Amino acid sequence: MRIAATKSIEPGTKLAKAIYNENGQILIQEDVSLTQRMLKRLQKYNITYVNIKDSLTDDINITTPIPEKLRMEAYQTIKHSFSEFQSQDIGNSSFVFEKTSKQMADMVGNLMDELQQADQVVSILSDVFLTDNYVFSHSLNVTIYSLALATELGLPRSKMEEIGLGAMLHDVGKMFIPQEILQKQGSLSDMEFEIIKGHTDIGFEFLRNNHNIPLLAAHCAFQHHERLNGSGYPRGLTEKDIHPHAKLIGIADVFDAVTSNRVYRDALLPHEGLEVLYAGVGDLFDRELVEAFRRTIAVYPTGLMVELSDGRAGIVAKQNQQLCERPVIRILEEDGNAVSVPYEIDLAEHLNLMVTSCFATDLAKS
Fold first, then answer.
1. Which of 92, 114, 162, 183 sits in a 20 to 30 Å window from 145, CA-based?
2. What is the pLDDT of residues 91-108, one digit of tens each?
3. 247 is a catalytic site residue
4. Which of 174, 197, 247, 318 is catalytic?
């Protein structure tokens, strides 16, 4: 199977992995031939990439470290918890907070266990299920990325639990921002942007008044938009005053934001999202954390089409765990012509070659 952009798929192409909604219900079965109507519906729901069948890549297996069932359960936990928080009076909701915070902490533990057992780099590009709220799906993705980064750093489990819960709750303040501003398709006015920036203060005040949630989670919500050079918000803190957990979550937050499809722009591919982070190293983001983050994700996800520095092109066939930016490539084209027999080349063993471009269209269309 391979990854293809929904905007480039021709009707009649067969789906390689089923597409679910957030309740675990199958919306489009595996092996179904996609129609123009289906493709437009996927694009409407901001699904940028799907896995499709291809005779040249049928044996390529695209896997993810978080099983689909657990991912959906985690999404539902966040959705339910955030909705409960939003509907309760803070002063009279200790029971609700105790129950929901425990559910979230338990889910963080489940995600952490899967990531540590999976022993593979993280790729959310091929995790396809339709969700009804960006805040919920973003909170889940940031949690997964943050836990993967914490694992790479070798942090103790107690610290990982703190980071996971802080990541899951980092955007809870957005539940109290008007939806018409959060979902606005056009440019935000200065006033609207200030309102959105206020989610950090709102989240902090909301969480610090809940004694069932660690105060550190409140600080993660408060500081995840702070930057090393003081250019962030809400307080313009500099490197020494930003909590290490907030620095870590801030990197995961930016990466998921730029690699997710939004109503106002298309998603970047993972290597492009990494370029955004590297462009901010030193001024905005900690170099050690960005370097560690690079080692945790599939820079070039399995199933993605790439072009090499010598002009050959093909599909990412599998990952090299310790060299995420140098995967195994199945060569399908040489000098713009299809090869008679596809073959694989391991970039970890051919250091003179590098990936020069990525695309999610047919090779002939690239």
1. 183
2. 445 566 778 888 999 999
3. no
4. 174
